[in-house]
């Protein structure tokens, strides 16, 4: 083997993860169930979902601690959500459709993202393949250039209707360095002051 050949190849994202799948995202605290399209970006940096309003939420693959499906996934406690998913009927297939993604900065401060697929066993396949991306050695031991690429990938996924990156997204990406972001945008002769401006 040549010294120039990488020993570890980057994680391979299966095509169905990039194409996405329809799920219902639910939350016990707000008792809201919303239809979403769940996807993983082609490079395997983010798990993200798009609401019908086109609003997107991102979850860094590095922040995922576990994925659960079936009887190990979180179950709705609120009666309103139980009614939405017909959980109290004997022939209900809810357990075959569940997916819970557990994320957080450590193993104590955790957030549970709960999804229900429209088809049986989809949650199981997604849980296994997302966890495979999470556990890939290069996911946790990425190079500096990979972190820069992650920033670029996320910014490019949030284009406005004109196909441009909104300026506010730069500020959201680097909230602690507002002055440095303004200086960098100014040095590139890009708009920096207007919140609605785009690159």
List the SSEs and their pairings.
Blueprint: H1 15-19, E1 21-27, E2 32-40, E3 46-51, E4 56-60, E5 64-69, H2 79-84, E6 98-103, E7 111-117, H3 122-135, H4 137-140, H5 144-156, H6 167-173, H7 178-187
Antiparallel strand pairs: 1-2, 1-7, 2-3, 3-4, 5-6, 6-7
Pfam families: PH_14, PLCB1-4-like_EFh
Domain PLC-beta PH: 13-141
Protein name: Phospholipase C beta 2
Task: Please provide a written account of the structure.
This is Phospholipase C beta 2. This protein is α+β, with helices and mostly antiparallel strands and 199 residues long. It folds into two domains: 15-135, PH-domain like, CATH 2.30.29; 144-188, no CATH class. It is built from seven helices and seven strands. It is globular. It starts with 14 loop residues before the first helix and ends in a 12-residue tail after the last helix. The mean pLDDT is 87.
């Amino acid at each position: 083997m040549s010294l120039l050949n990488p020993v570890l190849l980057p994680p391979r994202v299966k095509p169905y993860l990039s194409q996405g799948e329809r799920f219902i995202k639910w939350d016990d605290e707000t008792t809201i169930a919303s239809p979403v399209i769940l996807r993983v970006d082609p490079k395997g940096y983010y798990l993200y979902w798009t609401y019908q309003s086109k609003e997107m939420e991102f979850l860094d693959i590095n922040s995922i601690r576990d994925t659960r499906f079936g009887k190990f996934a979180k179950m709705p406690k609120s009666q309103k959500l139980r009614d939405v998913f017909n959980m109290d009927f004997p022939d209900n297939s809810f357990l075959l459709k569940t997916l819970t993604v557990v994320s957080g900065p450590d193993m104590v401060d955790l957030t549970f993202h709960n999804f229900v697929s429209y088809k049986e066993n989809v949650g199981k396949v997604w849980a296994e393949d997302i966890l495979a991306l999470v556990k890939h050695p290069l996911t946790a031991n990425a190079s500096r250039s990979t972190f820069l690429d992650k920033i670029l990938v996320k910014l490019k996924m949030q284009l406005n209707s004109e196909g441009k990156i909104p300026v506010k997204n730069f500020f959201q990406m680097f909230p602690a360095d507002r002055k440095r972001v303004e200086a960098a945008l100014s040095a590139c002769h890009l708009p920096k002051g207007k919140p609605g401006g785009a690159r």
